[in-house]
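In this notebook, the sequence line spells out the residues, with the fold written below as integer tokens. This is how one looks.
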Amino acid sequence: MITDALTDPIVKAAIEALQKGDRKAWLALFESDAQLYDDGALRSLEKFTRDALGHERFTSIARVEQGGLEVIGEFHSEQWGDFRTYFRFRISPAGKIKRLDIGQAK
């Protein structure tokens, strides 16, 4: 999948790490106290990283919004199948991800 549409460098690095299943690179982009919300429910970032990276990925990107901080596209999960999803990033002043909201997009 081509990530050229991703304009924010941190978001691009995060999506590329997700795509490659690179847990170390993925976690290095997050604040130590970063929060992950999955369809509005607080979820463990560490558990998501263990469960998803290497098993879930975007298959295409439909849109990039919110100044490059929201990615919407088709997504594949070995456990849940294929569906449209969003990843919405909030970046701290230090340049790390402080919050990530993910969920099914309509």
About this structure: The first strand starts at residue 30 and ends at 38. The beta strands are 30-38, 41-43, 56-65, 70-77, 81-91, 97-104. The chain is about 25% helix and 45% strand.
